[in-house]
């Protein structure tokens, strides 16, 4: 088969293959420490990888108006899944120190989100405020401890410091998951939406920190962490707003929302694959 004519006959599949190649090469270069310079809070390599992944997702989802066979659609979907499973900057780090710094960089946003939660009860219906307060009562202590342990690990990235960080991020994640489930039971629609939005801001940041911790944790440590996770992500997924989560990540990293959406999806996929 003539490869040139094949490109013209199957442009979407050919473009998807090219994007897969870009993501794969970028991933290998990133693992080898090749950055090609900085781009925002990341590198040119990671930016190229994320853009290629986002374009591949759009290619697989967005029909061009011409008939597409079931086999072609399945092939594009498979390629998109492959790209999603390849590393992008949100969930991977070059080293333990780099990841630790990234975790610490998230902590001001975490503390701000928790402060917003603390003041949210006054905006809820009177009967809903006690439910919200009970659901989020442990956020302050948990966030303070997570921030302290993240800074301690950055200052001294030892195995014992990492173990404490692993335990605390799972503990806080479980508190947030439990809070989402409780807020989901609020009957008043306006109160429920506001409560879930406030808790999700915390949940998104904890998920980001969790993904970073996961990227430097051994399989044995992940198995232990998963065993401590009783409320799984699948249980709270219906209460999360994908767009809001992407906006938070995009604002933190100074990137496009479309790229952040891919990063959030990968982080959630990685957590669920690991048993969370």
Mass-distribution shape: globular
Number of domains: 2
Number of strands: 2
**How many helical stretches?**
13
Q: What about the largest sheet?
A: 2 strands, antiparallel
Gap between N and C termini: 46 Å
Oligomer description: single chain
Can you give the helix content as a percent range?
over 70%
Average pLDDT for all residues: 78
| Secondary-structure-derived class | mainly alpha
List the helices and strands and how they pair.
Elements: H1 3-9, H2 11-31, E1 38-39, E2 42-43, H3 44-61, H4 70-85, H5 96-120, H6 129-136, H7 139-155, H8 159-183, H9 189-215, H10 219-227, H11 233-236, H12 242-253, H13 257-273
Antiparallel strand pairs: 1-2
Helix pairs in contact: 1-2, 2-3, 2-4, 3-4, 3-13, 5-7, 5-9, 6-8, 7-8, 8-9, 9-12, 9-13, 12-13
Description:
The chain is mainly α. The chain has helices at residues 3-9, 11-31, 44-61, 70-85, 96-120, 129-136, 139-155, 159-183, 189-215, 219-227, 233-236, 242-253, 257-273; strands at residues 38-39, 42-43. Helix 2 (11-31) runs parallel beside helix 4 and helix 7 (139-155) packs antiparallel against helix 8. Residues 28-35, 60-70 and 73-89 have low confidence and may be disordered. It contains 13 helices and 2 strands, in the order H-H-E-E-H-H-H-H-H-H-H-H-H-H-H. It folds into 2 domains: 3-87; 96-273.
């Amino acid at each position: 088969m003539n490869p040139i004519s094949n490109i013209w006959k199957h442009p979407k599949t050919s473009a998807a293959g090219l994007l897969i190649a870009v993501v794969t090469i970028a991933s290998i270069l990133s693992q080898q420490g090749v950055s090609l310079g900085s781009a925002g809070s990341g590198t040119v390599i990671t930016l190229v990888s994320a853009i290629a992944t986002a374009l591949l997702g759009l290619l697989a989802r967005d029909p061009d108006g011409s008939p597409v066979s079931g086999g072609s659609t399945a092939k594009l979907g498979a390629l998109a899944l492959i790209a999603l499973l390849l590393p992008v900057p949100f969930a991977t780090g070059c080293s333990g120190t780099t990841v630790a710094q990234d975790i610490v960089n998230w902590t001001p946003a975490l503390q701000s989100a928790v402060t917003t939660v603390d003041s949210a009860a006054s905006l809820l219906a009177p009967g809903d405020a006690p439910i919200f307060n009970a659901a989020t009562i442990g956020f302050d202590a948990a966030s303070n401890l997570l921030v302290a342990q993240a800074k301690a690990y950055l200052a001294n990235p030892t195995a014992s410091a990492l173990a404490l960080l692993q335990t605390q991020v799972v503990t806080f994640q479980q508190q947030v998951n439990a809070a989402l489930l409780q807020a989901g039971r609020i009957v008043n629609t306006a109160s429920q939406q506001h409560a879930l939005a406030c808790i999700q801001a915390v949940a998104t940041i904890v998920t980001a920190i969790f993904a970073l911790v996961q990227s430097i944790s051994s399989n044995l440590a992940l198995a232990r962490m998963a065993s401590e996770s009783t409320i799984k992500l699948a249980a709270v997924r219906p209460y999360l707003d994908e767009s809001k989560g992407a906006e938070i990540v995009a604002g933190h990293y100074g990137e496009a929302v479309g790229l952040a959406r891919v990063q959030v999806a990968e982080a959630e996929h990685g957590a669920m694959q690991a048993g969370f």
